[in-house]
Amino acid sequence: MSALNEFKKGLWAESPVFVLLLGMCPTMATSTTVMNGLGMGIAATFVLLGSNLFVSLLRKVIPDKIRIPCFIVVIATFVTIVDLMMSAYLPDLHKVLGVFVPLIVVNCIILARAEAFAYKNNVLNSVMDGLGMGIGFTLALIILATIREPIATGRILNAPDFGFGGLALFPAKFAAGLISQPVGGFMTLGFVLAAINGLANRKKMRQDAACGCPAPKEV
Amino acid sequence: MKEMMVILLSTILVNNYMLARIMGTCPFIGVSNQFETATGMAAAVIFVMSLASAVTWLVQNYLLNPLNLGFLQTVAFILVIAALVQLIEMIILKMSPSLYRGLGIYLPLITTNCAVLGVAVINIRDGYNFIEAVFSGTGGGIGFALVLIAMAALREKLNTAPVAKSFKGFPLTLIITAQMAMAFLGFSGFNLEKLFGL
Amino acid sequence: MRDIVRYGIILTLICAVSGASLALVYSKTSVIIEARQQQAAMKAMAIVLPKATDFVKVEDAELAGVASGQTGVLEAYLGSSAEGAAGAIVKVQSNGYGGAITMLVGMDTEGICQGVQILSQTETAGLGSKITDEAFTGQFAGMSGTLAIKKMGGQVDQVSGATISSRGAVAGVNKALDVAKALLGL
Fold this sequence. Notes:
The structure holds three protein chains of three kinds. By secondary structure, chain A is mainly alpha-helical. Helix content of chain A is 63%, strand content 2%. Chain A has helices at residues 3-9, 24-30, 34-57, 67-89, 91-97, 108-118, 123-153, 182-210; strands at residues 155-156, 167-168. Chain A has a two-stranded antiparallel sheet. In chain A, helix 1 runs parallel beside helix 7 and helix 6 (108-118) packs antiparallel against helix 7. Chain A is flat and about 60 Å long. Chain A starts with a helix and ends in a 9-residue tail after the last helix. By secondary structure, chain B is an all-alpha fold. Chain B has nine helices and no strands. In chain B, helix 1 runs parallel beside helix 7 and helix 3 (35-64) packs across helix 4. By secondary structure, chain C is α+β, with helices and mostly antiparallel strands. The longest helix of chain C is centred in the N-terminal third of the chain and has 47 residues, at 2-48. Chains in contact: A-B, A-C, B-C. At the A-B interface, helix 2, helix 4 and helix 8 of A face helix 2, helix 4, helix 6 and helix 8 of B.
């Protein structure tokens, strides 16, 4: 598979959040505003890139039996680097993301890609995979946040670290603040997944109809 | 003692790790479809969370802080947790091979359970002493277990219910979790200190 | 046996490289982080005691003596300007609805509160958390004596729907003002 394919698959076809169903905790917790989602996505992508790069570089050196602890040390190192840099240069984002920054180390996506891909593939493909998965994760966060932030606050693109208060879409008093709580996180992801399932099912039914195969019975 | 009850009830109900902090979703959704496995996982998580809270607190206060190595917290904590989970795996294998088989891949996955690392980090962040940290970890585990078992019971019933095709499986589980979270929001007004006369 | 030794060496090497690189990043970033924290502290102090230009920290022993057994008295500073003593700033912690409320309170040499800044709180988001709003904290400037919320016959407007959070905040302000009064010998 060409390196470009490794990159593209993470964006949608094998989206880590919507298809592989990994990394849901930070997805629901940090998609409260678009800028938060973007920040978490970029941080996680950085860690994913570093982790995939080094695991792939060291794949001949790391013995199979202790590979998980080795992955963990590599991932934790990059997470700490991101944590320190964020608290130095983006303190407001760091405060909002809070405990979810060190929790990037247990983001299932990163460990899963190290184990399933970087350990068995060359450096170029691993880096492309990491980039694609990371951007796919960020995309998923932004999609969810684009739904949640306006409904919950009436604004979009609120970015305190850059001194930008966001674009007001409607008065805040009509907003449903609950959507930025965990309740809203679970619900939004649930409905988005259902919507994606629905679209995938319709596409499959249309494909089956087009090729003349009998439509599958409703389960 | 009363302060400990406050911490316990606060981590179980008010700041439930799954429903209020959104931690532990992956194993939650993965294991809650079967009641048996869910109860086994619940017990394991309570054990790991209490033990991890204790050990990580000791590591932070007797190793990292004295040597000014606070920035190694993430690396140190996750390694401690990984080691603890390995230990528990070996214990479960010895004590109940059937439970070991039932939990399957989800046992080592407790390492990546956000709630375990989460409670360790939050204990330090909130400045708990050792006893408070252990109670917080145990309470966190009990809270997670409570929700996990409730969800497993619900899902077993739902298996026979007619559900819209798009919503089958994950989407429905997430929406039910949302409703549970809404219910638990009722606890957020709980003045635990007043209840225990503190 | 040889395998375990090999595993041990490889894992140790990886940990060593990890530790070294982290120490490097930490040494660079900790400077920035500390500078920012200092800046934030100075900014908050300037808000609660605007007349002061210099701040001297009160020794912990002296503070303990003045606090006379009250819990949650964290730090205190004496403020001065070119004209002499300007007042005192006390950092206290009081119990709110969802946890501890940490705040900075400034008092001038006449015993009048100059400002209140909430440093941290874990009150209900959108409800009790409104105690951090200027609309709530701003009303303390100019008040003196023992304060209470209007519901209890006092002068402080509580945050609507968050009586307990407001009461906790006012309790903290009262505690701080008492300590400040003692520090300034009023």
